[in-house]
Amino acid sequence: MSIKQRLAKLNPRQQEAVRYIDGPCLVLAGAGSGKTSVITTKIAYLIQECGMSARRIAAVTFTNKAAREMKERVGTMLKGKEGHGLTVSTFHTLGLNVIRGELKALGYKPGFSLFDSEDAKALLRDLMNKDAQVDADQINQVQHQISAWKNDLILPGQALSHAADENEQYAARVYEAYVRHLKAYNAVDFDDLILLPVVLLRDNPDVLARWRRKIHYMLVDEYQDTNVSQYLLVKLLMEERKTFTVVGDDDQSIYAWRGARPENLVTLGEDFPRLNVIKLEQNYRSTGTILRAANTLIANNPHVYEKTLWSEMGQGAAIRVVVNSHEEAESERVASEILTRRIKERAEWRDFAVLYRGNFQARLLELKLQHYQIPYKLSGGTSFFSRNEIKDAMAYLRLLINPADDNAFLRIVNVPRREIGPGTLEKLANYATERGASLFAACHELGLEQQLPARAVERLGRFTHFIDGVRRRMDGGDAIAAIRSMLHEMDYEAWLYQNASAPTIAEKRMGNVWILIDQLEKSMRTDPEDISPEESTASEETETDTVEAAISRLVLRDILEQQAEEDDTDKVQLLTMHASKGLEFPHVYLMGLEEELLPHRNAIEAGTVEEERRLAYVGITRARRTLTLTLARQRKAFGELMDCAPSRFLDELPQEDLEWEGQPDREDPEKKQARGKDAIAGLRSLLG
Ligand code: ATP
Ligand code: MG
């Protein structure tokens, strides 16, 4: 299909949004109105109709899943090499690429490490334990606070003046030390992927000019979820040319808890007074009934921009509300229904999605799906990357590209076993701290012999020598081959066999490690998101640079989506409402429509029910043909069966469109208690 034919398929407002390329453009519209379609068509339009080089275009969104989907949609529109050098990625990958291209200006060495949340926690624990013994809660709080500051572009030097109370003052002091240590480890954390580029571009006119020459057109999906730093990144890059398109829906802002600023929609109009605001009103996704439910629900929130969505898809089926006696029955119901409905609706497994508020809700459902042998895919749950063998392999990779990565060092110095005990490591750590060196570097220092028995020094030396050797072979030629032979030489497989309860498990684990290395190799070959600022640097990139880049991309992917293979086989999709943003499915189940679950108890207490309502709105608007809402009268929480009240959001839906199956709880307490016992017994038998 030519781009002209593609354009002709869009409605006049969408066409206007695609064709408008000379100035800033905001598409503000409700769910399913074709915002993402505007972005993907516009990328093709810029390349095929305006003759813009794909290298000059950067499209960003929030989740890896959404980025992948967008990439696929664009891929079908472009021919041959048209898409070469095009950036379609998450905000964080874009930031990572800026950092990679500007290491020197940032004062980082090549092969920097990307700390995931666990690594960052470990560092915070070390820093905070210096003052007094701290617990996990305190660490989480400080971590959250530092993240909030970073998202708001508040640097360590400014944090103290923003601190509202004693706790925040303390966090501000930890923040300062934390940033200093990260830098010493040649490491960045997740939030730095946006913060560092923003500060760099803001303070360095040369660097800024270089990136402005590189990116001529930007497109941002899910704009309502940008935080202060992300908005500034867009603004800095686009301030001069003013050529960008952002699309968003204030009713789908669901990341305020992570620093998102829906008011960025308003700021955009102030910063770019000639902003062309285009509204879309036709929904192409859902039936009239589903759309009415979404509109009626969200009308309970105050609105900046009024939107009215309509659909030509017909009224469709009523929305079913299925009440279950307890959570196990709820899962049983969903699983068995999918089994029969797949045949009745002539659907595929992948046409069904089950959405829920929290990952824990998926556990019972998984058991039920397994029971019926229904294939499913869980997004964001226990992931490939959180497997121990993968964490080990990743730690080796990280240490290879950045010997100063102490967390990686500690993870694998004794994996497989090298007889290096905790006492040795503690002394080594003290010695390293004194010298301001990394653990790896400290192993090489002569003075170590005074601190440790000769045997321990020798064992440490053997380990670092081994790593150095692999590193040299990587630099000298085939990096992937060097990594593969490293795994063989240290006989990681034997270690897995020693530690697994069954040989098949060890086999599977080793297989996972090879999958990881294959992924790495593949990623080196394609380097899909490479957008170094100047073409010349890209061609000068050495082999090791590419390995380093590929490894940091792997680490980023680990953090972002915690999901290994791109799995597009036919499976029922299980995901949180947060992760479902931007996606659509023919048949959607929304589970757990109960007070304290949706809206979540924390939100009720914090007075942020509006964000929960938007979350429910996101969930409802994922459905194309049918929507089923489920709830339980009782649910286990804190080891006890608790009574659950139906969600207030159910009352806010148009009652005439709802078809109830079962009634919410209005029985006397005694009967309830008896049933509660049944439920416990049921649960026990289920869990074996
Ligand atoms: P969300 O807010 O959920 O991200 P969106 O506004 O990005 O939704 P899209 O995902 O772009 O909406 O589009 C929703 C569905 O409508 C998709 O299946 C898309 O292919 C289809 N669609 C979009 N525009 C049109 C059109 N003009 N004609 C027919 N179908 C369309
Ligand atoms: Mg979209």
UniProtKB/TrEMBL annotation:
One GO cellular component term noted in the UniProt record for this chain: cytosol
CDD domains documented for this protein: DEXQc_UvrD (cd17932)
Domain UvrD-like helicase C-terminal: 288-582
Catalytic activity: ATP + H2O = ADP + phosphate + H(+); Couples ATP hydrolysis with the unwinding of duplex DNA by translocating in the 3'-5' direction
Biased amino acid composition, Basic and acidic residues: 663-678
Subunit description: Homodimer.
PANTHER family xref list: ATP-DEPENDENT DNA HELICASE REP (PTHR11070:SF64), UVRD / RECB / PCRA DNA HELICASE FAMILY MEMBER (PTHR11070)
Identification of the protein by name: ATP-dependent DNA helicase Rep
Organism: Halomonas chromatireducens
Gene: rep
